[in-house]
Amino acid sequence: MNRKVVISDSGVIFSLAIINELNLLNLLFDKVLIPKAVWIEITKNIDTVYYKQIYNFFKDKIIEIKGENNLGIIMDYGESESVILYKELNADFLLIDDKKARKIAESLNVNCIGTLGLLIYAKENKFINKLRPYFLEFISNKRFYGKEILNKILELQNEEKI
């Protein structure tokens, strides 16, 4: 992952906000953008603890898609606009966690990275020291990553399992 242009869906944004690591996006990529549909999703609930952090980070990173959203029938609106924006801008990566949406995006030749892959990359490049504290935070905040996969990653990264 050489520092490039990345489009993000909302799931990765919420996960990074929970662990207070949205800034990793600026460290890992030259440009971080989101489609308007994702902006609407991530700013919908102003009562969330993470609202201000998310709002301030993304308020100047919103792009409206130019074309029609013809993927809205097979994926959620934010995910579909993310894929379309990725294609329109010829972006390098799409940050997306949803399994079904990711599978669809990859079938359209979209280069996808999820939250866990992003954190592994950040650790391997010494932007973060340990994954385990983040994984524990995901679990306590009911972020839906399987404990089995988290433990496998921790094992591969020579960290204590959960």
Question: Layout of SSEs?
Answer:
Elements (H helix, E strand, L loop, with lengths): L4 E4 L1 H9 L5 H5 L2 E5 H7 L8 H8 L3 E2 L13 H13 L3 E3 L3 H9 L4 E2 L1 H10 L7 H9 L6 H10 L6
Relevant terms:
5 strands, alpha/beta, 5-stranded parallel β-sheet, 9 helices, 162 residues, 10% strand, globular, Rossmann fold
Provide a brief overview of the structure:
This protein is α/β, with parallel strands linked by helices. 49% of the residues lie in helices and 10% in strands.
Indicate the low-confidence ranges by residue numbers: none
Whole-number mean pLDDT: 93
Computed over alpha carbons, the radius of gyration is 15 Å
What order do the strands of the largest sheet run in, or round the barrel if closed? Answer: 3-2-1-4-5
The assigned CATH architecture is: 3-Layer(aba) Sandwich
Q: What does the overall shape look like?
A: globular
Termini separation comes to 28 Å
Using the coordinates shown, work out and report the CATH topology: Rossmann fold
How many structural domains are formed by the residues?
Answer: 1
- Beta-strand level of the residues, as a percent range? 5-15%
